[in-house]
Amino acid sequence: MKKHAWRQAAAAGVVFAAIALPRPVLAQNLHQHGEITGEQLTEADKLFDEAVALIDSCDHGEWLKAAGLFLKSAKLRPCHDPKVFQARKEAALLYYYLGDYEKAHATLRGAAAHALGVGALPNAAQAYVEAAYAAVRLGLADEAMRYVAAAEDISRSPFLGSETGRLVHLVPGQTADVRKR
C-alpha cells in the first residue's frame, strides 16, 4: 500500500473512532473548567500515590477505594497530563478485577476517548482493546467488535510503531495480523 493510502486509512480510522464515541463522553473527558493550580496537582499526586499504596497492600477489599482515588486524581489534572489516562486505566482495571464490568467498561471507554482526544493513539488503542474485554463480559459482542475495529484502525497508523499493532492481538479471536489486511 502506498504511503498516502496508509495515511488516509489511519486518518479515517481515527475519525471513525471519534465519531463512534458519544459526544458527552468526549466532551466530558477533554474539558477542564478553569486552570489547574499547583495545589490541585499536589492533591492529585497524593491521591494517586494513596491509590497505589492501597493496591500494593494486596487487600482486595481496598481496591474499590483505590479505583475511586485514581478517578479523583484524574479529575484534578490538566487533560494533557499523561497520568490522567494512567489513573483512568488503573481504576478501570480494578473495577474489572472486582467483577464490576459495567464500571470497567464505562471507565475504559472514557479513557479511550480521552487518549484519542489528546492524540495519545497507542493509549487509545490499548483502552479500546481492554474495553472490548469488558464489553464481552457484559455480553455486548457487537460493541466489543466496534472497539476492536477502532483499535485496529488506530494500529494501522503509519505514525505508530509495531507495539500498537501487537495490542490488537491480545483480543480473543484476533489471530491474523491486522496490519496486513
Percent helix, as a range, is over 70%
Reported for the largest beta sheet, the result is: none
Class of secondary structure makeup = mainly alpha
Mean pLDDT: 79
Give me the number of helical elements: 9
Strand-residue fraction? Answer: under 5%
H/E series: HHHHHHHHH
Instruction: Give the low-pLDDT segments.
Output: 14-19, 21-33, 173-181
Radius of gyration: 17 Å
Q: End-to-end span in angstroms? A: 11 Å
Number of strands: 0
Globally, the shape reads globular
Q: What's this, in brief?
A:
The chain has helices at residues 3-20, 23-30, 38-56, 63-75, 82-97, 101-117, 121-137, 141-155, 162-167. With 181 residues, it is mostly helical.
What does this structure look like?
- The structure is a single chain.
- The chain has 181 residues and is an all-alpha fold.
- The protein is built from nine helices and no strands.
- The longest helix is centred in the first third of the chain and has 19 residues, at 38-56.
- Residues 14-19, 21-33 and 173-181 have low confidence and may be disordered.
